[in-house]
Amino acid sequence: MVKLGGKAPEFCLKDQHGRKHCLKDYLKKKKIVVIYFYPKDDTPGCTIEGQQFSAMLSSYNRQNVQVLGISPDSIDSHKQFARKYKFKVTILSDPDKTVIKKYGVWGKKVFMGKSYEGVLRTTFVIDSYGRILFVFESVNPTGHATEVLKKIGKWKNECGMKELGMPLNPITPKPGD
Fold first, then answer.
1. Among all residues, which ones are annotated catalytic?
2. How many domains does the chain have?
């Protein structure tokens, strides 16, 4: 189970263009990584969330933050979804739900009184050392991209960091981490 302050599970998944993205590659570049898990392509909430992250992508990039969306939809579905709404954000395909389950965002949902299993809309912010800085659960897609960027900015200011993603007191990993 992923815990606040704990190590983020490693993953490699393909994006809407079939290119592989691995968490470790972004961490090597000392980037902060925002991963937003969403239930399904081309649904109202998921569309709003993807559009807002895309609209703010240049602001994230200026802060040395990589944004990745993940859902269980196929690469082809992601490609059509991204093209239809002109997404700039990278969306990754996890059809086997391996990463979704590693991050603990597969679970019971209720819609119109009916229970089912699905992706719990959740966002993780991971620092450049691979630690979970923030977890946003039960996300409301409207305004979420702004909320996440503000939280990262506030954290940066409170830590007195000169460069986003570089904590003042890095935690030394324990053997086996």
1. 46
2. 1
